[in-house]
Amino acid sequence: MTRAIKVSSWNEWDPLRHVIVGKADHGQIPAPEPALNAKVPEESDMRGRWGRRSKDSIARANELLDEFSALLRRRGIRVDRPDPIDHNLAIATPDFTVANQFTCMAPRDVLLTIGNEIIEATMSYRCRWFEYLSYRPLLEHYFEADRGFRHVAAPKPRLTDRSYRPDYFADRIDEPTRLEWTARKHFVTTEQEILFDAADVTRFGRDLVVQHGFTTNAKGIDWLRRHFPSHRVHAVNFPGDPYPIHIDCTFVPIRPGLILNNPLRRLPDEQRAFFARNDWLILEAAPPAHNEPPPLCYSSVWLSMNVLVLDPKTVCVEASEVRQAEQLDRLGLEVVPVELRDAYPFGGGLHCCTADVWREGTCEDYFPRG
Ligand code: NVA
């Protein structure tokens, strides 16, 4: 018997019942554009390259994503998959054109599930402007199947050059300069318009913690605050990160009371007070097992901490990330190893490649001391 569809998820750890897992079809290295240039490290093998990824790499990534989906299904979790648009196509709006797009490997970046609502984020890269279309068939289906589901699209941005700071277009920016800019919140995106990527938000019931950085600006955080008047929305930033995009390699809740923080991207003291006074422990994540990301990958080695929590006692960790697995095992969790490293270049790790549809549980206040 098929279970009725229900859209509901309030946090990152309640028992997972229904999830979307991305696909690598038509995977691209995006053509240069302002937001993207700011994110590609100087020494990266991605610099100056763009176009369709190889057939073999796409097939391998899809094999791993299929296996991950099968593993989740064996655990009784319903898994849906997107309908990839052709990311190889050039796109144009009245304001910009780009020569190709990205993928739909990382639904977490685009879809923000809060309670019975799924929001399509504005996104902040031009190449990701139409990515929501790959998820539309699923969202249309949920809309028909669940009368309680609220389907929301955040205001689509124009992404003209005014949305990006020209300082970041320079060919070389050394790391000390980048760190100094991050520390004073001088990010590549300006405050021209509302911008956020869904993966900058981490959900703690009544509290939403949102990274202010390259992909989410202060106006984006303000939009979330106004959109969720019953939530407390906390803006955070991580001065140690020269490329601050997406919170899920930086600040990762595991279960009520426990967060992993990337030791190189420490949450500043004044922002820790809120967690401390509510008895939440912020632990330094274990170091990654690898010195380098896989070839042609945008993300850092810290995809090691991009874990998917299945319930407060069970967590999926990438199979080669033995140190992260060990740490979580010592913390008393059952660790489920999942091979995904060859899919990293398409958009990220185990958390990135999923988006919640349903987790059990309700909206709770985990920070009663405000
Ligand atoms: N900023 C992240 C990407 C998160 C998926 C990184 O460490 O590369």
Overview of the structural elements:
It is a single chain. With 370 residues, the chain is α/β, with parallel strands linked by helices. It is 21% helix and 21% strand. 46% of the residues are buried. The mean pLDDT is 96. It binds norvaline. Norvaline binds next to loops.
Bound molecules: norvaline
Percent of residues in beta strands: 15-25%
Distance between the termini: 44 Å
Bulk shape: globular
Mean pLDDT: 96
Low-confidence stretches: none
Radius of gyration: 19 Å
- Secondary-structure element series: EEHEHEEEHEEHEHEEHEEEHEEEHEE
Helix-strand makeup class: alpha/beta
Strands of the widest sheet, in order across it, are 4-1-19
* Helix content class: 10-25%
Main beta sheet: strand number and arrangement? 3 strands, mixed
What is the tally of beta strands? 19
Q: Count the DSSP helices.
A: 8
